[in-house]
Design goal:
mainly alpha; 5 helices; 0% strand; signal
Length: 152
């Protein structure tokens, strides 16, 4: 069940930026993605009432930042998809630089999130949450990578 939910999450995250749907439909898709991810966190974390009161507001704050970052990544993939068969060396190097910018931003968001979690949760729960987040991200990256053709 979890694998199916995560694959759905990855697929929806990949398709949102490419869809020319109305804002309402895009908002609904985003909500589905966020809810599926939250469900995965709930299934893998055990919070006391006090911990939950501290965790969930931080989670919501940072999920918005992570979602925006994933949108940047999706735009990068779209840029690559538009040129991958005819990509010049210059275009390739621009994409490489943009890729690292997106990755650095992702790492900065996760580092700040981790620092905030250290104040709110015991160390083992911070570590466990980061494991959950990284597993979800790894599955999403794998699903995306399967669909991206190699440069020509």
């Amino acid at each position: 069940m979890r694998k199916v939910l995560v694959i759905l999450l990855a697929t929806v995250m990949l398709t949102i930026p490419f869809m020319a749907a109305a804002d309402e439909a895009a908002d609904l898709k985003k909500k589905i993605v966020m809810d599926q991810k939250k469900l995965m966190v709930i299934e893998n974390m055990e919070f006391s009432a006090e911990e939950a009161d501290k965790f969930w507001p931080l989670y919501e704050k940072y999920q918005e930042k992570l979602f925006a970052n994933s949108q940047q990544y999706a735009k990068l993939i779209a840029a690559y998809a538009s040129v991958y068969k005819t990509m010049t060396d210059t275009e390739a190097l621009v994409l490489v630089d943009e890729y690292y910018q997106v990755q650095e931003e992702h790492l900065a968001i996760m580092k700040q999130f981790s620092d905030d979690l250290k104040v709110a949760l015991p160390g083992q729960k911070v570590f466990r949450y980061l494991q959950v987040e990284n597993k979800i991200a790894a599955i999403a990256r794998f699903e995306i990578a399967k669909r991206i053709p190699m440069a020509q």
